[in-house]
Amino acid sequence: MHYNVIATRYLHDYVVWLKFEDGTEGEVDLASELWGPMFEPLKHPERFGEVSLAEYGTIAWPNGADLAPEFLYERVRANVADIAGGLTRARS
Questions:
Q1: Residue 85 sits in which domain range?
Q2: Above 70 in pLDDT, residue 89?
Q3: Model pTM?
């Protein structure tokens, strides 16, 4: 499986949009992941918004913080599934 992030965009608060090399894309809220010394500065939304695409296939911030692309992929897939499930229930 190819989990590399190929595009990212900061949306708001602690939410980013991600696209992976297999075409999977979606939003993920990372607020609950901002713990520990590397992520503490990112609790300020203006700092979190400095997210960018890292050359090694994930997202990163200027202070060196990054997240494993496999983790991000699973979070996006879960979020997409939750949204799709909600749409299916709404149509019933």
A1: 5-91
A2: no
A3: 0.85
